[in-house]
Automatic annotation (TrEMBL):
It is found in: Cell projection, Dendritic spine membrane; Cytoplasmic vesicle, Autophagosome membrane; Cytoplasmic vesicle, Clathrin-coated vesicle membrane; Cytoplasmic vesicle, Secretory vesicle, Synaptic vesicle membrane. The gene is LOC110502015. It holds the Pfam family Renin_r. This is Renin receptor. GO terms for molecular function: signaling receptor activity. Keywords: Cell membrane, Cleavage on pair of basic residues, Endoplasmic reticulum, Membrane, Receptor, Signal, Transmembrane, Transmembrane helix. InterPro entries: Renin_r_C (IPR056780), Renin_rcpt (IPR012493), RENR_N (IPR057318). The lineage of its organism: Eukaryota, Metazoa, Chordata, Craniata, Vertebrata. Residues 270-345 form the Renin receptor-like C-terminal transmembrane spanning segment domain. The chain crosses the membrane at residues 298-321.
Amino acid sequence: MELPLLFRRVQGDSLTILQAPEYVSFQKGDWPISGEKIPDMVALTMGFSVQEDLSWPGLRAGPLFQRPRANVLVVVRGVDSLALPQSVASYPLENPVPFTLDSVAETVHTLFAEDTPVVLQLAPSEERLYMLGKANAVFEDLPVTLQQIRARLSQDGSVLASLPLNSLSRNAEADLLFLSEVQVLHDITALLQRHRHLAKDHSPDLYSLELSGLEELGRRYGQDSSQYQDATAILANVLQKFGEDLFGLYGDSAVVEVVTVKNFEVPLTRKSRSILESKQISNPGSPYNLAYKYNFEYAVIFNIVLWLMIILALAVIVISYNLWNMDPGYDSIIYRMTNQKIRLD
C-alpha cells in the first residue's frame, strides 16, 4: 500500500523542510542536495546573495521584498531520517560533509548590525555556544554545559515530567545527553515566548542547532535497541512541535529545516565559546576585532570608487588643458574688462 505524501520519508540522509511560509517556494521532488550547499540554500531563503548560483530545483525564486523573519536549522546526527508527521518537502542529502552557517551569520550581522538580530548557534553535546545581537540578553539563562542542562532536568518545568521515557533511563549518561538536548529545545521555545517582541522586528533571526544524542544512544545500545527506537520517536514529535511553535511565534514567517545525518564524512572541529565570552565584535570570526576579509558589496563599492576617480581625473585634465591654452584677451572677461579700462585711461 502506498503511503500518503506527508508520511513518506526520503531513504538515507535527508533534508526536511518542516515549516515554510507560502512565499518561500519549495518544490516537492527527489532532487538531492549536497551538504556543502545547505548554507547557500539557507542564505537564499533569507533573501541574501551567494557567491555561486545554487543550481538546485528544489527552491524557487520568491518575492524580492517579502522574506521570512527567521531561519531555524536543526542538524540531527546518528539517524538518516525521522518519521516527522507533517512537513513541506523532503530531499535526499548527498555528500554529507560537515557545514556551518557562519557565512550566513556574518551576512546577518553585517547587514543588520544596528538592529541587533538574534543569531544563535548551539551544540549541547559539545558545549558549543555562539551568540550575537539580542541573543546575548534573551538566552542569557539558557543552560550551556552538560552539567547545567542536567541540573535543569531536575528543576520545575523539566521535560521529564511530560515525556514518555519508556525504556530510557534518567541515570544513564547517553540517555541524559539525549534528554538534555530535548530540554534545550524546550527552553529555547519558552524563552522566545517570553520575549515575543523579538519576532516582530525588521531584522531576520538565525538559529542553528546540532543534536547528537541519538548518535550516542546508537553507540551505547545499538540502533535496533528499544532505547534508540523510543528516542527516535520522541525526537520526531519534539521537533515537530518545536517547528510549529517557532513558526507561530514568528507569525508564520519562518523557515524550519531538519537535516538528518547518520555519519559525517569528515569530522568537524570548531572553537567553542562560553556564554560569558559572547561579545559584540565587528568580526565574529576573529578574536582580534579585525575587519572582514570580504564583503558581498565589495564589487559594487569598488566600481563606484574606481569610476568616480577616473571621471574626476579626466575632469581635472580637461580643465587644466583648457586653462593652459586660454587666451586671456578673448576667453577671460576679467582680462577683457581690464584691457578696455587701460585703453580709456
